[in-house]
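Format is chain and fold; as here:
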Amino acid sequence: MGLFDFMKNAGAKILGKDRDDTPESTKPLSAHLRDHGIDPVGIQFRFHGDTVVMEGTVPDQDTREKAVLIVGNVEGIARVDDRLRVEPRKAPAQIPPKPLSGAADASATTSHASPGSGDGGAWTSKTHTVASGDTLSGIAKQHYGDARLYPRIFEANKPMLKDPDQIYPGQVLRIPPQG
């Protein structure tokens, strides 16, 4: 959970000037997430001026971090208040097979994925705001000490990034842990 700052005048131009908390005003954010490969089901948006509050659940930490950055990298959004929780989506219930007749009191054992902590939890990645003249290799050198590790940053920001040479000043990127 946290408040993340972005450059209000940089990013995708998907929002109109008049925003409120109606589904019509937040629909472009859901579509933008979907366009970037993230299912927005379970995520709700609210506007407070140039801040977007994101609440709800996502299936994993990577999805959470990407969703916040995709929404924050929209023109007109200066901050994202991340109130998302990681809760793995449950698989449909399966009926255990009936024990064979004559089996001695067989019991079915099922395992379930842990439901997540229920709170937002800490981010596993750092963020980096792109400055004029930055390159992914330069950012990798700064954060990892090795420019050749830029593909790690590129992969962590897909599908928001489609080309490692196309980043822009003000864009906020995920910097995954080095390990």
Remarks:
- The two ends are 23 Å apart (CA to CA).
- Residues 61 and 86 are 6 Å apart (CA to CA).
- The chain has four helices and six strands.
- The chain has two domains: 1-88, 125-179.
